[in-house]
Design brief:
14 helices; MetI-like fold; mainly alpha
């Protein structure tokens, strides 16, 4: 057993590590909730708000560019995650059925795509030829299938008991029934983890929007975050759909956008956490 000195050292180290993680986020939330006067007096960063003011949040939800970006990100994340899970699960099941037509060449193609990725220019030309420029589908279709996630799901399906599959076949189950009534119900943990990966990827993606979307009304939240927070561009009253005399400091608005971009992930993750370790360990075992 560790001695008193070792336990104290670990406690101090963990406390410092937690403080380094929590304090910046606490400052972001506090700055977004602080009154305009408090933000100005503190030089733009408030660690603990004395008086709570929700003006910054009312501004970003007033129907302007930020509100539109939240709706775009919600649509892209929701539709993209469902589409990606559907394609990944069906492809993983098909690749797990050894001996089926085209199984091995398709598996090799998936494995090769792990090693080689297309460049920016070829990807842009493909999206352009498909007529997806300035379309929200340009944020979904090019990243709808991840080869890594397909391999993880395939590995899970490969490990399903062969006796279970054979018994269902003897009872007259078709391949589609095997997939929907046996494969999918048993694969909920791994699909929950893969869905989390896809959802986080769609919600946090901004580079594809930067390449393919020129209409600001179709920008996702992360591109708005990059434009007005990271790059430091000013959000005017016309961008927020609010009156100019009611504008809070830019720092408060920027921190509020940052909080809104993080909250969905913080809310969803605890519900999927119990599946995370089980899903990854189950799906990653060599099949």
């Amino acid at each position: 057993m560790p001695g008193p000195v070792e336990r104290v050292t670990k406690g101090v180290f963990l406390t410092i590590a937690c403080a380094l993680v929590v304090l910046p986020f606490l400052g972001v939330v506090s700055t977004s909730l602080a009154s305009p006067e408090r933000v100005v007096d503190a030089g733009g960063f408030v660690l603990l708000p004395v008086d709570v003011d929700l003006t910054a949040y009312r501004m970003i939800f007033a129907g302007g560019v930020v509100t539109q970006a939240i709706l775009v990100s919600t649509f892209v994340t929701g539709v993209g995650t469902v589409l990606s899970l559907t394609l990944t699960a069906t492809l993983g099941w098909a690749l797990s059925r050894r001996g089926t037509f085209g199984n091995r060449p398709l598996l090799i193609l998936v494995l090769v795509s792990l090693l080689f990725s297309p460049g920016i220019i070829p990807s842009y030309l493909v999206v352009q030829r498909l007529g997806l420029l300035d379309s929200l589908w340009a944020l979904i279709i090019p990243t709808s299938v991840s080869a890594f996630n397909v391999i993880v799901v395939r590995a899970f399906f490969v490990r399903l008991p062969g006796e279970l599959i054979d018994s269902a076949r003897m009872d007259g189950a078709s391949e589609w029934q095997l997939f929907t009534r046996i494969g999918l119900p048993l694969s909920r943990p791994v699909l929950a983890v893969v869905g989390l990966f896809y959802g986080v990827g769609y919600w946090n993606a901004f580079f594809n929007a930067l390449l393919y979307i020129s209409d600001a009304s179709k920008w996702p939240l992360q591109l708005v975050l990059r434009t007005y927070v990271v790059d430091g561009n000013q959000l005017g009253a016309q961008d927020l759909g609010a009156a100019a005399d009611a504008m809070p400091p830019q720092t408060s608005i920027q921190m509020a956008i940052l909080v809104v971009s993080v909250i969905p992930l913080l809310v969803i993750y605890p519900f999927l956490q119990r599946h995370f370790a089980k899903g990854m360990l189950t799906g990653a075992v060599k099949g």
